[in-house]
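Morning run. Coffee first, then this:
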Amino acid sequence: MAMKVSCGRGIVVTSKDCCAQVLYRYGSAFNSPIRLQTCATKVSHKVIYRSINMTRASSFFESKLSGWKVTKSSYVATRNTGTMNSPVGLSLGEAVCLQPKISHSKNGQEVILKWLGGRELRFHAVWLRYNCQCPECVQPYSGQRLLEAGEVNPDITVESAYVSEDGTELHLKWAGSYHEGHVRLDFLRKNSYHGHKETVSRHQVTQMPSISYEEVMSGKRGLLRWLQHINKDGMCLVKGAPTDLNSLIKVVQRIGPVQETIYGKLFGVESTPNPINVAYSSVKLDYHMDLVYYESPPGLQFLHCIRFDDCVVGGENFMLNVMAVAELFRQQHPADFEILTKVPATFQKVHFARSEPVLMKYQRPHINLNHRGEIVNVIWSPQFEGPLFAEYDDVLPYYQAYHKFSKAIQNSQNCVKLRLKPGEILTFNNRTILHARTSFELNGGERKLQGCYLNIDEYKSKLAVLAHLLEDNQPVKHVGNQCWF
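And here it is:
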């Protein structure tokens, strides 16, 4: 199926599914505006150059460049043997971005890449050197760095830079080091730190998102959808799971290995005499996170409802996005907010009256910020707080700020309330979502949940890998794990 070009006021190219890519490159070469129309026939599209702003169109058409690469040839090859004479210089192959214009600044200490349409990326020469992807610097199979940490002069400069013939790599020569290497352009776009703004979820849902057990277990698409709900909303309810004691671990292992803690791999949540955890009783539980006395508290928590009899009064769960509460608290009480970012609280689990005695303590502030001042982690678990150990002059200001933040959490109306039903699995991010429970009376019935945890890094890795493999473009949001990204 050959392509057709007509000159004059506009350029018309017809093909089944490649004309947008060709026209974008052709239009970029001549800085022409673009408009896209669908033809009446099912086998072709028509792209006509008219008077729409090029900068508005460029990002749309750049996304359609999959399946092409830049070459030095003077023609465009179609998906059959047809050709089109033009200076476009495209052929079928790997997906790449258009070649940027390259310039240096600060005597070679910076490299600037500028694309048509106005997008500009800046990189320091020393950053590029540490991220060189040539075989001397990175082991090809493992992808691990071979470059020695102290080998690079921080004042290094770039002597020359150019884009490879196929348009996929930036080739560089560093002055004085006699090293020549390359960095992929797609790597530079994904890892640009110039004007970087991370996607951070701060909203609080008022309704619990849900997904069926069958969808989660049936394939990668359903699994990805479940993980994205958790990433976007902090929580998700899996419905229709079997109520046997072996089902939960099978669901969790769809993501990764169960995280073992001082409570084992799986734990039962039901009222017991002499409980080793306050949750294993019928009393009210205020908002909290689990196991914050660990250096790395559990990431995802799973609560599988095995039995919840109708005669049981109470026992409802409440879920609250503490990141959203903290952001609002910063606006309303900036001085108190700052105190909670600097004065460390003590979190502990000290319990000798159990088969395996535990003595764990960890000190850290309630709120952690990154270098941009964004909230990356909030820790809240009053049930497991130990004595404050801080500077004398910080004690009273800390408790004043602590009291206000506690009230902000308790008084927040942006929570989700639910009473679990047998076969439902409550899944939530233990790093961003506080959970609470009302007290309950069994009245001769039974309330039995089974729980477990998953490491936050296992979860985030699985989400990112599935999104990549399934070509899903939704960004992975921050998961509240203290990472500064």
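Confidence is low (pLDDT under 50) at residues 1-97. Good start to the day.
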